[in-house]
Amino acid sequence: MKLHFESNLDYQHAAIEAVCDLFRGQEVCRTEFTVSSQSAQSAVGQGELPLGGSFTQGQLGLVQNELGVGNRLTLLDDELLANLKNIQLRNGLRPSSVLTSGDFTVEMETGTGKTYVYLRTIFELNKRYGFTKFVIVVPSVAIKEGVYKSLQIMAQHFRSLYAGVPFDFFLYDSSKLGQVRNFATSQHIQVMVVTVGAINKQDVNNLYKDSEKTGGEKPIDLIRSTFPIIIVDEPQSVDGGLEGRGKEALDKMNPLCTLRYSATHADKHHQVFRLDAVDAYERRLVKQIEVASAAVEGGHNKAYVRLVSVSNKANKIRAVLEVDMQRGTSVSREQITVQAGYDLVQYTNRSLYAGFLVEDIGCRKGDEYVQFSNQEAPLRIGEGIGGVDEDAVKRQMIRRTIEEHLDKELRLNPLGIKVLSLFFIDVVEHYRHYDANGVPLKGKYAQMFEAEYKAVASKPKFRSLFGEVDLSLEAAEVHDGYFSIDKKGRWQDTSEGNQTSRDNAERAYNLIMKDKEKLLGFETKLKFIFSHSALREGWDNPNVFQICALREIGSERERRQTIGRGLRLCVNQNGERQRGFEVNTLTVVATESYEDFAANLQKEIEADTGIRFGIVEKHQFAAIGVLDANGEAKPLGVEKSEEIWTYLHESGMVDAKGKVQDALRTALKDKTFTLPEEFVSQMVEIGEVLKKLAGGLTVKNADERKPIKTRQAVLQSAEFKALWDRIKHKTTYRVQFDNEALLAASIQAVKDLPVVTKTRLQWRKADLAIGKGGVDTNETASSAPIILEEQDIELPDILTELQDRTQLTRRSLVRILTESERLDDFKKNPQQFIDLVADSVNRAKRMALVDGIKYQRIGDDAFYAQELFNQEELTGYLKNMLPVTKAVYEYVVYDSGGVEKGFAEDLEKNEAVKVYAKLPSWFRVPTPLGTYNPDWAVLVDVDGAEKLYFVVETKGSLFAEDLRDKESAKIRCGEAHFQALAVGESPASYLVARNIDDLMSKVVN
To answer: Residues 873-884: pLDDT tens digits?
Structure first.
């Protein structure tokens, strides 16, 4: 297959123009210098470089005299700065006030053609200004090989675009320094690709040593004399910080300028173009991302611990652990912070953690750990113990990836699109290892894959993909690994820490790059690729549709690095790019919940790119087009943009940091957003920018919380006083219950428990939407649970556990467990069984208490004073407040938008209702289950002849079985409480109502 490259993509043109326009006004020229063996040297053409200092160019010695050719800049600093400001204004970037260096930044999201852009920029700069010398500096072997491969496959494309202009490109090799001499003397475009590791160590790199191959001179001096334009790919990894050795090595090349390309810049020097993650997603320049998340349910039968992180702040060494916490009758997985000496039993409230005493915490970089008193080996970051069988979970992840892959093949094969999947694994030996004789053997992941591939491919729905294919042979042929390769041809874990490791990595990358196009063709059976880290950066195949992380996603940039390998839009068998989310969807298979994945991805995007989700920058509107007095289009500009920002801030729509407030969201939603008269003609464009930044309305915002005043005419009325006098008194209660009846009810409750299941795994899938307001999720599918068989479960002391949770005697518990005939379920899932039994017994206890409850009025002096309405402040959120006229307060604050709001509206409309109150939270009835706050007090006038008083609880159903157990019990207590107050003339009646009709039917009866 031959890949086709699109030459007319507007955003790529904009990125190229942003760089080329820096030199607007530059003449087409070059500098020439003599390359000879003379010791006396004099430069010809250019003695000073305007970008940050003066440099002396010398003649460099070769065996014979030869003319060297270099780049030459004729623009002054002021001219460059003016060009820079115009470009930044055009692209909506904050203009630079001064030119501090010759560094310029281009930000492009992974998968949008960054390499194509900077390679084409080389040809465009040559065409416009005659520049010929370019050095591409990359951080790793992987990216070096990727760039070289791109140059090879794009060469013909560029020749066709630029009239066959001659050019040479090569990988810098310290053993082939004659290439550097040719770089200096050639009159044609020269592109040298080099890793920062080859140039940043002067004492060992041949680049800085005299060489016969360059006529006895240092290769670096040849390069310096050409004033190359340096292109840095992933500068955040090249620089080594602002004063790092990488940055220092770049400066030693005497660059005419340095162009810096990345999606994740650490330092944005003079930014000229930005196409960030949000822009790329919104313009559909990359694939739609979805996450298939494996959620393990009921797997709390062992002492689970995972080390998340360690820290040393204020001389206090701490570790963050993920553990299973006992919360009431349920167990949840949470993170806790511990120090040496902490006992996990006390923090988790679970006896399973007996012996887990934190002995030591190590925080040295690269050697972080936690040592527990009952474990031989320390726990390293990302490692866990006591969870469900990891291999069982990983087998399910492999299976899910295969299913996702084959589902896409059904859709995409007919379109001529080859589907690929990537597995990132923890260590190579899990995929392939070697016996004593060096014979390769399949590791556990390879064995799992082949077994699951045969099982999934055998499903009827995939029959059309395979026909008569022998799946036993097919399963072995469709997967392979790309790992570092040692000199014996063995795979090993990837590292670039020393030269031997880099050589091993390079052998792997060469293989990967050679196969890049072959992998896209149907004639190549390989579809599933396993890798350690060889494919993390520098290798991006456009037809990767599934990425499965069989290792912990832990580092701060791990999610972006992972999805970055599959973001590119796919190609068909003709090498043509295919567009649209309906074809381009990347599925990430992970154990992290999709909500957590989205939240962490958003944090990574913010940290990597500097994007501040939901923040309006002061220069946000500078690039919006306006017409000047001559009717010509020009940018609005920074000053006017700042005026708009000030208006938004003063109007309460953004805070002092530019963070969008709900006042702005509401105005945009209700279409009430306005601007000062001067900017009305740009209202649409400004509104669109703000809509992207604003995101959705938050549920509640502290800024919306408002105090609610009492309506004194109602509060002081005779009608309300009569109503209040009937319900204001306090009561006390006592309970009586039959112990035998409690045991019988508990036994029946345990008998009726739902089925106790073994530990299970459930898949949930969600689309991720990346917008300027943040990363949102939309769940699209969930699967039936998959049973995970757990081994070596130690059964806990069930009687002690239940006694602690229910306060029943061991004898009573033994009777409940044996007579319920459910003890066999205890072995299936001990923790789930204990949780369910404790919950059902406590429920039976509550009902037994309520069944025998008796309320008694305390006395005439114990009551809720009517003055409390004025003394106790009531507040509410605007979106949950209804303006009313008959109630004690000016607004009713409702919880449920359906039942309570509808009931209040009906009370207002019904002429028989004279006054009412939504009872405030301080009006409480004591119960054995905690205090109870009834909903309403209502006075109804029947034809002017009779007044009836009610306390009403509004619910969506009148049936007790439809209400939560505790809720139903509290309602029964409320009924008993008001019955105890039902003395005297026309006492208040208590009832549960769904709507006003239920109340009025009580009035009639």
So the answer is: 888 877 788 999
Looking at the DSSP bridge assignments, the partners of residue 190 are 133, 168
pLDDT value of position 584: 92
Q: Which of 231, 224, 159, 156 is nearest to 191 (CA)?
A: 231
Tokens of 704: 């919306």
| Residues 841, 144: Cα–Cα separation, whole Å | 66
Question: 67 vs 537, which has greater pLDDT?
Answer: 67
Q: Is 194 exposed, middle or buried (0-12, 13-18, 19+ CB in 10 A)?
A: buried
Reported as a single tens digit per residue, the pLDDT across 737-775 is 788 999 999 999 999 988 888 888 888 888 888 876 778
**One-letter amino acid of 629:** A
Q: Which tokens go with 876? A: 């509410």
Closest CA to 372 of 404, 399, 402, 338: 338
Tokens, residue 781? 């599918």
CB atoms within 10 A of CB 729: 19
Distance CA 185, CA 176 (A): 16
Tokens representing 884 are: 């009313």
Radius of gyration, alpha carbons of the chain: 37
Tokens standing for residue 30? 């070059």
- List, for residues 277-313, the tens digit of each pLDDT value: 888 888 888 898 899 988 887 778 888 999 988 999 8
Q: 597 phi and psi, to 5 degrees?
A: -60, -45
In angstroms, the CA 619 to CA 81 distance is 18
Q: Which residues pair with residue 211 across a beta bridge?
A: 217
Q: Let me know: does 468 contact 474? Beta carbons within 8 Å.
A: no
- Please name which of 109, 168, 995, 996 lies closest in space to residue 611, comparing C-alpha atoms: 109
Cα–Cα distance list, 896 to 369, 705, 901 (Å) = 49, 17, 7
Backbone CA torsion sign across 264, 268, 272, 276:
positive
Q: Contact 189/159 with Cβ under 8 angstroms?
A: no
Round to whole Å and give the CA distance between 312 and 606: 25
Taking the alpha carbons at both ends of the chain, their separation in whole angstroms is 85
Answer for the pair 905, 918: CB distance below 8 angstroms, yes or no. Answer: no
d(CA 595, CA 779): 10
The burial class, CB within 10 Å (0-12 / 13-18 / 19+), for 951 is: buried
Burial class, 159, CB count within 10 angstroms (exposed 0-12 / middle 13-18 / buried 19+): middle
For residue 739, give both structure tokens. 């112990």
Confidence at residue 41, expressed as pLDDT on a 0 to 100 scale: 35
